[in-house]
Design brief:
183 residues, two-stranded antiparallel sheet, 7 helices, Jann2411-like fold, mainly alpha, 2 domains, two-stranded antiparallel ribbon, binds zinc ion, 7% strand
């Protein structure tokens, strides 16, 4: 298993609006074989899981290591994971989360938890975050080498940069007019 990819996908899962089956199918890009298995029950279970998983990202954002570990451990008790070693199609041995009888919700929950648990053990528990952009609550996984990520997406990052630039310009104009007034 590529745990970074699974961890990243868990952020994508939290950020996805899962209103109905079509929304969930839209989230499963490149995993066409899962599309026809998606049910309303999967959507309902995943909406519940989104509410359970967000606090993990918030705790990591707040550098609350104890809470990140405790929350993830609790979630793994509530949603037991069955990893399997897979050796299909000439790939190297890797971990899959489940067997054919697993529902789409169980699969995505298992992948999220195994991905995040492996990520925090390998890269550290403060690698998850909530976007710093105004009016954005999306979460992200920070895999940058110097752990410098602050935004969920390039779009939010450039929006925030533009806003900061405008604020500096405005400040500069205010400063200049203040100088003129005192001169
Ligand atoms: Zn595989
Ligand atoms: Zn954002």
């Amino acid at each position: 298993m590529d745990f970074l990819r699974y961890a990243d996908a868990s952020a994508g899962l939290v950020n996805t609006e899962i209103g109905d089956v079509d929304d969930l199918v839209g989230h499963l890009v490149g995993r066409d074989w899962l599309h026809e298995q998606v049910t309303d029950r999967d959507c309902m279970l995943l909406r519940k899981f989104q509410r359970e998983l967000r606090p993990v990202f918030e705790a990591s954002e707040a550098d609350d290591v104890r809470a990140v570990v405790d929350l993830l451990n609790e979630l793994m008790v509530r949603h037991p994971i069955t990893p399997r070693i897979a050796d299909h199609d000439g790939h190297d041995l890797h971990l899959h989360v489940a067997s054919k009888s697993t529902s789409v919700a169980e699969l995505l929950v298992g992948e999220s938890l195994l991905g995040l648990a492996t990520l925090i053990c390998d890269l550290g528990p403060t690698r998850l975050g909530v976007c710093s952009a105004d009016r954005c609550t999306d979460v992200y996984v920070d895999t940058s080498p110097n752990q410098s990520r602050r935004y969920c997406s390039d779009r939010c990052s450039s929006r925030a940069n533009v806003a900061a630039y405008r604020a500096r310009q405005k400040q500069q104009l205010t400063d200049e007019s203040a100088t003129e007034n005192t001169a």
